[in-house]
Amino acid sequence: QRDAKGQYLFDLLCHHLNLLEKDYFGIRFVDPDKQRHWLEFTKSVVKQMRAQPPFTMCFRVKFYPTDPAALKEEITRYLVFLQIKRDLYHGRLLCKTSDAALLAAYILQAEIGDYDPGKHPEGYSSKFQFFPKHSEKLERKIAEIHKSELSGQTPATSELNFLRKAQTLETYGVDPHPCKDVSGNAAFLAFTPFGFVVLQGNKRVHFIKWNEVTKMKFEGKTFYLYVSQKEEKKIVLTYFAPTPEACKHLWKCGIENQAFYKLEKSSQVRTMSSSNLFFKGSRFRYSGRVAKEVMESSAKIKREPPEIHRAGLVPSRSCPSITHGPRLSSVPRTRRRAVHISIMEGLESLRDSAHSTPVRSASHGDAFAGPGRSGRAESSERVAVIADESYSPADSVLPTPVAEHSLELMLLSRQANGAPCSIEEEKESEAGTPAAEAEGELRALCPGAGSLGPAQVQQVNKFVLSVLRLLLVTVGLLFVLLLLLIVLTESDLDTAFFRDIRQTPEFEQFHYQYFCPLRRWFACKLRAVVNLLIDT
């Protein structure tokens, strides 16, 4: 409905997925200017959308669990597994070659089970795409680990081991925001379960714990992070976002992440302002529960574990989500033969079809050969598999078209826990905003229209809001001055402060030449009005 709030849509989706530990997740959408946003649950869905319906939204992990292995339910761990698997594929999760091989082997074990010489011929691991790029040596290492070390592990066990390993990596939980530092160098800012991170090249150049972050604010395109470290050392980190909207989104993400991970109780959450002046800037307040409360609530869950319909190795332009069956790719792979996995019968044969993790196709081949990426990953332990020269998730992501009318997905038309997600993805920002977010896209068809363009409406709203704030501040200041004037002239308070003011020549002149005549005139007019009312 037009007045339905974001919380209603989110609860509807979590009920659809049979998900109780839902505080880690959120709904993301992209506006017509290609700027990403998190759906705010306290506001109307339609009012947050600047596009015309139908609206395309994406179910994502918003707050990565500090310890994903400690999640209570397997369905929650599976959804987080899908998100991190997607992060790995889209170049967000940097790791050494040995770590990459182990993570990929866990994915392989979770999706196709134990190695079977009769079903898995030589080079079978090369049929799957786990990273933006592979090397033959890496593919052999993946197959070797899968054959020798993971035999007997169930999908749930493999996913749990995957999460435990991913959690140890420096870029676990990174949702990168492209920016530039004061020197004009490209950087990615991110908020993780443990603090604020700045990435340049393929290195983490800054890591600041949440208890060291004292304040975050923004002005236009400029983002400020105030840090208080040991020995009362205070620093301010300054970065420049591509657009004011991107900077505001960065600021809001920072406010939410700090509240979620740092605070003990949601009652401690305060409304934050982007400016020191109360009539200027934006205001935002995190509306959910904090991590500690979520963990305490999860410990109280007592129910039969819900059935999980895991995706087999099926094709998509992103990693798979919860589904009952495979989806076939309409674009064949050009470099290698693809693999078809039958979920009901297991991996019986290798055929010309497709697989679960995304493959390089003829139409998307150039998406993996962006600037800053050269050749295949080296086997050296010091070289990151995802980014050889510079950390740039946008180089590895696939195109992300906004809703195509030929692919209508109604949320309620799917079976619980069994809805295949749209193969569409979010539009990436022109300034390099990573378009890859995580598993499961949905499209909510909501009514909504307007004669004014979205950009015009937003500009008008901002102007009206600024005028109202200025008017409110002016009236408030005048009221305060009036009260002070009345106290000075009419009260009997004889404090040193008032006495000094009253004894000044300027005040005496004002009092006798202006204030007293004005008071007599006002009293006269008031008596005239009262007499008029009595006569009538």
UniProtKB/TrEMBL annotation:
Gene name in the database record: Frmd5
InterPro entries attached to this UniProt entry: Band_41_domain (IPR019749), FA (IPR014847), FERM/acyl-CoA-bd_prot_sf (IPR014352), FERM_2 (IPR035963), FERM_central (IPR019748), FERM_CS (IPR019747), FERM_domain (IPR000299), FERM_N (IPR018979)
Domain of life (superkingdom): Eukaryota
Source organism of the structure: Machaerirhynchus nigripectus
Keyword Phosphoprotein among UniProt keywords: yes
Compartments reported by the entry: Cell junction, Adherens junction
Function per UniProt: May be involved in regulation of cell migration. May regulate cell-matrix interactions via its interaction with ITGB5 and modifying ITGB5 cytoplasmic tail interactions such as with FERMT2 and TLN1. May regulate ROCK1 kinase activity possibly involved in regulation of actin stress fiber formation.
GO cellular component, one term: cytoskeleton
GO biological process: actomyosin structure organization
PROSITE patterns reported for this sequence: FERM_1, FERM_3
Keywords linked to the UniProt accession: Cell junction, Membrane, Phosphoprotein, Transmembrane, Transmembrane helix
Region (Disordered) residue spans: 351-380
SMART domains: B41, FA, FERM_C
All copies of domain FERM, residue ranges: 1-265
Gene3D superfamilies: 1.20.80.10, Phosphatidylinositol 3-kinase Catalytic Subunit, Chain A, domain 1 (3.10.20.90), Pleckstrin-homology domain (PH domain)/Phosphotyrosine-binding domain (PTB) (2.30.29.30)
Protein name stated in the entry: FERM domain-containing protein 5
Membrane-crossing segments per the record: 467-489
Entry-linked Pfam families: FA, FERM_C, FERM_M, FERM_N
